[in-house]
């Protein structure tokens, strides 16, 4: 089965929130519900909200948020949300989402990409295959910056 990745649209949010309901609920509760927060993130320039589709059906999604870091030597991308719908190939959907997130992070000048360590060993193995390694409480993957700043 072929999976396509694209930027999320406002019309994708309810389906994406329902797919990620369990992981969002585990993360705690804030003042906004998950769908409302995801709707706001669709339009933020320092966030990339992606969805994966198969035959025009949304099967997964991921969120990359950027923050500046002096110690990292540029921006750090944080994968805050990565979900795959039940009944879909979690390995392949995760791979295509991660590939696009890492490409996007590199294009935006990220020096590294981080993600909280998952408790599931299968999820951890998927991330290790993508080049992530343990760095304290997070997994980290260094990136080659697409347009490095030139130094005199």
Outline of the structure:
The chain has about 150 residues and is α+β, with helices and mostly antiparallel strands.
Kindly estimate the percentage of residues that lie in beta strands according to DSSP. 25-35%
Give the structural class.
alpha+beta
Number of strands: 7
Instruction: Please name the fourth-level CATH homologous superfamily.
Output: Gcn5-related N-acetyltransferase (GNAT)
**What count of helical segments does DSSP give?**
5
- Supply the CATH class: Alpha Beta
Low-confidence stretches: none
- Tell me the distance between the termini: 49 Å
- The topology string of helices and strands comes to EHHHEEEHEHEE
- The order of strands across the largest sheet is 1-2-3-4-5-7-6
Mean pLDDT: 87
- Estimate percent helicity: 25-40%
CATH architecture: 3-Layer(aba) Sandwich
Question: What Rg do the Cα atoms give?
Answer: 15 Å
Overall number of domains: 1
Largest sheet: 7 strands, mixed
What is the CATH third-level topology name? Aminopeptidase
The 3D shape can be described as: globular
Oligomerization: single chain
């Amino acid at each position: 089965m072929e999976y396509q990745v694209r930027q999320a649209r406002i019309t994708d949010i309810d389906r994406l929130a329902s797919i990620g309901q369990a992981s969002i609920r585990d993360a705690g509760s804030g003042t906004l519900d998950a769908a409302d927060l995801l709707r706001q993130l669709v339009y933020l320039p320092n966030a990339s909200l992606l969805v994966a589709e198969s035959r025009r059906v949304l099967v997964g999604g991921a969120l990359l948020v950027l923050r500046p870091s002096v110690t990292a030597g540029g921006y750090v991308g944080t994968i805050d949300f990565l979900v795959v719908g039940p009944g879909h190939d979690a390995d392949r959907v995760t791979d295509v989402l991660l590939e696009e997130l890492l490409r996007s992070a590199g294009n935006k000048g990220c020096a590294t990409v981080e993600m909280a360590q998952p408790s599931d060993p299968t999820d951890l193995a998927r991330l290790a295959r993508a080049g992530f390694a343990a760095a304290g409480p997070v997994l980290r993957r260094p990136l080659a910056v697409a347009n490095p700043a030139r130094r005199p």
